[in-house]
Amino acid sequence: MKRVATILILLAVVPFATSCGKKQSSYYWKSMEVTVSAYNSVSWQTDSLHNLAAWGDTLKPGMKTVAVSADLLEKGLTYNTPVKIEGLKGVYLVKDKMHPRWRNKIDVYMGKDVKRAREWGRKKLSIRFPALRDTLIQVSD
């Protein structure tokens, strides 16, 4: 019964919503506060394949990429998700994953510039990334 009611409401609402003149995107920029640190592609910070990211991308200095903790993967920060970071210019792409021990954290890739990464340190910052809007209308009994 719930499914039939949901379908009927969608059949009534969708034509109205699409005829209103403004097309609504199915995505919005979601914000959250995370711990942001930095990392480098040097052997003593990673493993022997220090330029190879988790999904097989080869990292090169100058790339705007981030590594994310596993809990953020579950929140929508998956492979190639664009991320805007408070205080940094441009858009970064999720290209790497962090060790499972980390929570609510991203690492900004800073090539081989260890000094810059150390100067960056660790900060609590706001990030934004595109998230899918809820598209189903919930109907209660």
Structure overview:
This protein has a single domain, classed as RlpA-like domain (Barwin-like endoglucanases). The chain is globular. The longest helix is centred in the first third of the chain and has 17 residues, at 2-18. By secondary structure, the chain is α/β, with parallel strands linked by helices. Mean pLDDT is 80; it is low at 1-20. It is built from three helices and six strands. It has a six-stranded mixed β-barrel. The protein is 21% helix and 30% strand. Strand 3 and strand 4 (92-97) form a beta hairpin.
- Rounded to the nearest angstrom, the radius of gyration is 20 Å
- Structurally, the number of domains stands at 1
Q: For the record, what CATH class applies?
A: Mainly Beta
Specify the biggest β-sheet: 6 strands, mixed, barrel
Number of helices: 3
Name of the CATH architecture: Beta Barrel
Let me know the number of strands. Answer: 6
Structural class assignment:
alpha/beta
Mean pLDDT: 80
**What would the CATH topology be?**
Barwin-like endoglucanases
Strand order of the largest sheet: 1-5-2-4-3-6
In CATH, the homologous superfamily goes by the name RlpA-like domain
Topology readout:
Layout: H1 2-18, E1 27-39, E2 65-68, H2 70-74, E3 82-85, E4 92-97, E5 105-109, H3 114-120, E6 123-132
